[in-house]
Design goal:
Structural class of chain B: mainly beta
Number of helices of chain B: 0
Helix content of chain B: under 10%
Shape of chain B: globular
Shape of chain A: globular
Radius of gyration of chain B: 13 Å
Distance between the termini of chain B: 37 Å
Structural class of chain A: mainly beta
Number of strands of chain B: 11
Oligomer: heterodimer
Largest sheet of chain B: 7 strands, mixed
Largest sheet of chain A: 6 strands, mixed
Distance between the termini of chain A: 40 Å
Radius of gyration of chain A: 13 Å
Strand content of chain A: over 45%
Number of strands of chain A: 11
Largest interface: A-B, 24 and 24 residues
Number of helices of chain A: 0
Strand content of chain B: over 45%
Chain lengths: ~110, ~110
Amino acid sequence: QQQVKQSPQSLIVQKGGISIINCAYENTAFDYFPWYQQFPGKGPALLIAIRPDVSEKKEGRFTISFNKSAKQFSLHIMDSQPGDSATYFCAASGGAAGNKLTFGGGTRVLVKP
Amino acid sequence: KAGVTQTPRYLIKTRGQQVTLSCSPISGHRSVSWYQQTPGQGLQFLFEYFSETQRNKGNFPGRFSGRQFSNSRSEMNVSTLELGDSALYLCASSLVQGAQYGYTFGSGTRLTVV
């Protein structure tokens, strides 16, 4: 009940293209869904987050889409840039899991110039 | 403002030894959480401290322990190291208890057990 599944494991996108990463969760008590971006040698950095009462949230080129009934959420990176090349993690917290984050397995994104 | 500081950045230890890792949170942040990152298991929660008290603990053996001091700095200790303990150990701080208030992660301590 604590698992968060993330796909794909890796993706390659051309500069200017759209990167889409999907996550599915099982625990319906989760109430906070962040996305983190991690560069090599660095810790994850909070990118954008959403709560289940909202279906979409946009910050700049990054958009989270949330489907509560399907227990799925996704990250869209519009106009992908080489500087977006990083590993992206979805996560969830709340309910019996408490305040800790349960992370997805990560997606390595490579943006080709 | 200064970010989350973890020391040391790299560490090599021998199997059976023990190790202590340190984390200094962002000034004013009172909550510190620890995560282990490995290629096989990904990011896994170790423990969370708030006001010098452990508030939550992940599914790790008792060899993993931690503490938080009155200035919010935190340490984690791993005793009787095993090869499988090789990982990047990440510390995250937040203003108050809870990931939903916005974690800031440090760059981690890379532990290698040989």
